[in-house]
Design a protein that fits this description.
The chain is of the alpha/beta class and 270 residues long. Helix content is 41%, strand content 17%. The protein is built from 11 helices and 10 strands. The strands form 2 sheets. It has a 5-stranded parallel β-sheet, covered by helices on one side. Strands 6-7-10-8-9 form a 5-stranded mixed β-sheet. The radius of gyration is 22 Å and the shape is globular. It catalyses: cytidine(1402) in 16S rRNA + S-adenosyl-L-methionine = 2'-O-methylcytidine(1402) in 16S rRNA + S-adenosyl-L-homocysteine + H(+).
């Protein structure tokens, strides 16, 4: 049996009774960083053995874990904070459990991105979770351009030393876009700030300390009617200049204007 067990993202009082019981009863707990998980175990007086399971060893240990569970062993999978598998290792193990027809269950807990979305004041009927942006500057610019032209609300994670750079890039593309920043969620200095990109950028370092992990919620892209008056080719060109890949820009322009993608492609490449 495998229990995919959610843990608190900051405030230990958010730990559920069920999660504590599962961690106590499991034969072993699979965790990213044993040092981090051991603090949680100590707080709740749980003495279940810990076993490392992370991006660097998951391929080596997954099959042995499957064999253990075939022979009756029970594991609990946790992450350093929040729900396992979300932007963390684990989906491969769940996939193998499915392949082998082995039982597993999910023990719920908070995820920072859902809590930030709820606290943002930005419409959440349709949204896309993007996780962390790529580290490569070129790939990062491409992804951010895609996000800034996305037709749904977007949610992403950012580190404190990159948040200013992120807001600067957002500001260059659309300084008036409504953005919400959440930090230190469930902790003592929890903070949620919403406003235009330019406004939030001006508040960094002052009203918004560069401490803690950040969750950024970006309002959806809305194309004004006046932007459709130009030629599709010019529209694609402007998106490419903002950092979007030509094929993505062509697809977006076709969707926004109700045109066939091939038509836009042909015009752009004339």
């Amino acid at each position: 049996m495998l229990y995919i067990t959610g843990t608190p993202i900051g405030n230990l009082e958010d730990m559920s009774y069920r999660a504590v019981r599962i961690l106590q009863e499991a034969d072993s707990i699979l965790c990213e960083d044993t040092r981090v998980t051991r603090k949680l175990m100590t707080h709740f007086e749980i003495d279940t053995p810990l076993k490392s399971y992370h991006d660097f060893n998951k391929e080596e240990v997954t099959e042995s874990l499957i064999e253990d569970m075939k022979h009756g062993k029970t594991y609990a999978l946790v992450t350093d904070a929040g729900m396992p598998v979300i932007s963390d290792p684990g989906f491969e193990l769940v996939s193998r459990m499915q392949d082998e027809g082995l039982p597993y269950s999910v023990i719920p807990a908070a995820s920072a991105f859902t809590m930030a979305l709820v606290a943002s004041g930005i419409a959440s009927y349709e949204f896309t979770y993007f996780g962390f942006l790529p580290k490569s500057s070129s790939k990062r610019s491409e992804k951010l351009s895609e996000i800034m032209h996305h037709q749904f609300t977007s949610v992403l994670y950012e580190s404190p030393h990159r948040i200013k750079n992120l807001l600067t890039e957002i500001n260059k593309i659309d300084s008036g876009r409504i953005v919400s920043i959440s930090r230190e969620i469930t902790k003592k200095f929890e903070q949620h700030v919403r406003g235009a990109a330019a406004e939030l950028l001006s508040k960094l370092d002052d009203e918004i300390p560069l401490k803690g992990e950040f969750v950024v919620v970006i309002d959806k892209y809305e194309e004004s009617e006046t932007e459709f008056t130009g030629q599709p080719k010019d529209h694609v060109t402007s998106l490419v200049e903002e950092g979007m890949r030509p094929k993505d820009a062509i697809k977006l322009v076709a969707e926004l204007r109700g045109l066939k993608k091939q038509e836009v492609y042909d015009e752009f490449h004339k």
